[in-house]
Amino acid sequence: MSTLRLDLENYRDLLEEYVRTKDERALYQAEQFSKQSMQQNISPEEIINIHLRSLQEIYPEMPQLILDSFDFLMETMMSYGLAYQEFQSLREKQLELKSEIAVAANMQKTLLSTVKPEMEGLDIGAMSVPSKQMNGDYHHFVMDDEGSLGVAVADVIGKGVPAALCMSMIKYAMDSFPELRMDPKYILGSLNRVVERNVDSNMFITMMYGMYNTEDHTFSYSSAGHEPGFYYSKARDEFEEFSAPGLVLGVSEDSMYEQRQKQVEKGDMIVLLTDGVTECRKGDEFIEQEEILEVIRDNKDLPSQEIVENVYKYFERLQDFQLRDDFTLIVLKRDV
Amino acid sequence: MNLNIDVKQPEERYSVMTLVGEVDAFTAPKLKEELLPLTQAEEAVVEVDLAAVNYMDSTGLGIFISALKSAKEYGATLKLTHMQERVYRLFKITGLTEIIDIDTSVKEGGS
């Protein structure tokens, strides 16, 4: 209502119209009036004052007693006016914080960015979507000179900013490992010591670390309490869960990690994920694992990047879908 | 969803905490506030009855890890009882079943 003016005259006319006609339209205008008053920082007491003056103009004969009662009402509304002022200043502060977090989130994105390598024989798809501004999931690709691919998927327990900061530490610990080619179980063992020493006791990290050897097409992996991955066998057209026993990082100083291996055939897929994928909900219901695998199967002939994107799109389209946790999904497909 | 926390102390240094509801990012801080002090007593035994907890997320898991660490520090014992299968899966995946005393028997008289 751009024509609505916030002045006494206008308020008086509206009030008069309403009292005379009891017309809904006047009520609607009153609502607009209230919205605009909010926008222009007009306090509740001021509105009462306008109301009082309008009444005086419409009913010059109004008894003194009613006029006096308005003083009383105005006094009663005082605290609301103050609360409203406070709300305004909090809102400004919140905007400030929001923009600072946005800067931090951006910085984190840069710090944690990983380049999805282009590899002969292995088609890689990866996607990570934070549920809030800062992502507590992390994935990382590293290639060594001999053409092997190291892939890490991790989830920091504890959300938001602290989790994100913790992830940056993990990334730098991983970058500082001297040898490029290391077994997953040793990598997890070293990271466990880093986390155990440096991180607050109720924060911990789950990670699956895998090494794909492009020469003999084997995939070795270890898990530190991470959500199991799925292995798709083209020959059997079946998914199976895979994992290896191991405790989450940062709980016990001397954790050991078991390493396992799979022989990957042409057309087979390795699916790595975080619990943001398996704990997606539609409304109050959990999305069943089978449903996720079914979507992957339906898309299996597409390039890996399209597979992961289609899984996310599928979730997004569900009714009442809400991302409760950060969502990370990686697909590795052997294509020659 | 809410979490109801009830603590009984049948003997000195022996507490039984009964949880009803979901342990997630929203309810975890309250749980932490109540659970941690119980574990901070020399040789205390703390039992947490999870028969009526049908959902726990990783934040909840974090609270139990903190509680375990603090129990160790004080020589106290932490026990989780009547854990439901869905919740147990989470403890199993994260390897915590190896280091926390967990009992999954279904509570008598139904869950």
Automatic annotation (TrEMBL), chain A:
Q: Could you tell me the superkingdom of the organism this chain comes from?
A: Bacteria
Under the heading SUPFAM superfamilies, the entry gives: KaiA/RbsU domain, PP2C-like
List the molecular function annotations (GO) for this entry: phosphatase activity
Q: Which UniProt keywords apply?
A: Coiled coil, Hydrolase
Give the PPM-type phosphatase domain ranges: 123-334
Q: Which SMART domains match?
A: PP2C_SIG
Q: Which residues form a coiled coil?
A: 1-31
- One short Pfam name that applies is RsbU_N
Q: Which InterPro entries match?
A: Bact_Sigma-Reg (IPR052016), KaiA/RbsU_helical_domain_sf (IPR017944), PPM-type-like_dom_sf (IPR036457), PPM-type_phosphatase-like_dom (IPR001932), PSer_Pase_RsbU_N (IPR014787)
Q: Does the keyword Disulfide bond apply?
A: no
Q: Which PANTHER family match?
A: PHOSPHOSERINE PHOSPHATASE RSBU (PTHR43156:SF15), STAGE II SPORULATION PROTEIN E-RELATED (PTHR43156)
UniProt protein name: Sigma-B regulation protein RsbU (Phosphoserine phosphatase)
Name the source organism: Salimicrobium flavidum
Automatic annotation (TrEMBL), chain B:
Residue spans making up a coiled coil are none
Pinpoint the STAS domain residues: 16-111
Question: Which InterPro entries does the entry mention?
Answer: Anti-sigma_ant, STAS_dom, STAS_dom_sf
Q: Which UniProt keywords apply?
A: Phosphoprotein
Molecular-function GO terms, alphabetical: anti-sigma factor antagonist activity
**Annotated family:** Belongs to the anti-sigma-factor antagonist family.
Task performed by this protein:
Positive regulator of sigma-B activity. Non-phosphorylated RsbV binds to RsbW, preventing its association with sigma-B. When phosphorylated, releases RsbW, which is then free to complex with and inactivate sigma-B.
- Sorted alphabetically, which NCBIfam families does this protein's record hold? ant_ant_sig
Q: What is this protein called?
A: Anti-sigma factor antagonist
Source organism (scientific name):
Salimicrobium flavidum
Q: What is the lineage of its organism?
A: Bacteria, Bacillati, Bacillota, Bacilli, Bacillales
